[in-house]
Design a protein that fits this description.
With 261 residues, the protein is of the alpha/beta class. The protein is built from 8 helices and 7 strands.
Length: 261
C-alpha cells in the first residue's frame, strides 16, 4: 500500500471536480491535489474561487490544474468541457460531483411545482448531464465517479425535501451506473454529508434558515453531538476515488456523526 500522498500520483489523466468553487468542492479538490492528482475544476459563476484552487495546486503541490466554466444544465456544453479536459490532461480518472443549487429549508407544502422542477433540473438532471459524457473517458482508464449527496436520504430532517428528493434521484442514477458500468471497470459511489459547519449549512446559518434553536435540535440528533467539517467529506470522497476502495462500488458512505443510526 502506498502512502496517502501517492494515492493518485500514478493515475493517468486528471480528477474532475464539479462545484470546485463551493466549500465542499474546494476541500475535495485540495485533498486530491495533496494526494497526487492533477485537477480539472469546474465552476458556474465563481471563477475567482476555482482559479485560486488551481493556482494553489500548481504552486503548492506541483500538480497540473485548470478551471473551466460549466453550466450543468447545458448538456452539450458539459460534454465539450469534458472532452477538452480529457484531451489536455491525457484522460480523466475520477469525476466528483460536488455541485447543486442552493436549497432553502422549507416545507414541501410551500414549494411550488416550478420550484421543485428547477431543483430536479439543477441537481438530478445536471448529474446525468455530467456523468453520461464522462463514461467513455472513465472506461478508458478504469475510472470512478463519486457523487456528494446527503445523509437526508436515509433519515429525513423536516424541511429538507428540496435537497433529499433530487439527491435521492442522483443516488439511484449512481446505483444504476454502478451496476451497468462495472463490466468496464468503472466504479460509482456516493458520500452523504450530514450537518456540517461548511458548505450549504454555512449558507443556511448565515441567512437565518437555521437559527440557534434549530442548530441545537440538529446537534442533539447526532450521536457524536457535534457537526462535521468539509475535510470530513473530502476524506471519504478521496478514499472512494482511490485504489484503496478498488473493490467498492454501488455504495454510499454517510458522513454524519451517526445521525442515520
Amino acid at each position: 500500500m502506498t502512502g496517502l500522498a501517492e494515492d493518485f500520483a500514478a493515475k493517468a489523466g486528471a480528477a474532475v471536480v464539479v462545484g470546485a468553487s463551493g466549500g465542499l468542492g474546494a476541500s475535495i479538490a485540495r485533498m486530491l491535489a495533496e494526494r497526487g492528482s492533477d485537477l480539472v475544476l469546474t465552476y458556474r459563476s465563481n471563477a475567482g474561487a476555482a482559479e485560486e484552487i488551481a493556482d494553489e495546486a500548481r504552486a503548492k503541490h506541483g500538480r497540473r490544474a485548470k478551471a473551466y466554466r460549466a453550466d450543468l444544465t447545458d448538456a452539450p456544453g458539459v460534454a465539450a468541457v469534458l472532452d477538452e479536459a480529457a484531451a489536455e490532461f491525457g484522460g480523466i480518472h475520477t469525476v466528483v460531483y460536488a455541485s447543486g443549487p442552493h436549497v432553502p429549508m422549507i416545507h414541501l407544502s410551500r414549494v411550488s411545482p416550478e420550484q421543485f422542477r428547477n431543483q430536479i433540473d439543477n441537481d438530478a438532471v445536471a448529474f446525468f448531464n455530467l456523468v453520461h459524457p464522462a463514461l467513455p473517458h472513465l472506461r478508458a482508464g478504469n475510472g470512478s465517479i463519486v457523487a456528494v449527496t446527503t445523509a437526508a436520504t436515509k433519515r429525513y430532517p423536516i424541511r429538507d425535501g428540496l435537497s433529499s428528493a433530487p439527491k435521492g434521484a442522483v443516488e439511484q442514477v449512481a446505483w444504476a451506473l454502478a451496476a451497468e458500468e462495472g463490466r468496464f471497470g468503472v466504479r460509482v459511489n456516493c458520500v452523504g454529508p450530514g450537518m456540517l459547519t461548511d458548505g450549504m449549512a454555512a449558507e443556511l446559518i448565515g441567512n437565518g434558515d437555521l437559527d440557534e434553536r434549530a442548530l441545537d435540535v440538529a446537534r442533539n440528533n447526532i450521536p457524536l453531538r457535534r457537526f462535521g467539517i468539509a475535510a470530513d467529506i473530502a476524506e471519504a470522497v478521496c478514499f472512494l476515488a482511490s485504489d484503496r476502495a478498488g473493490f467498492i462500488s454501488g455504495q454510499k458512505l454517510d458522513v454524519d456523526g451517526g445521525y442515520g443510526v
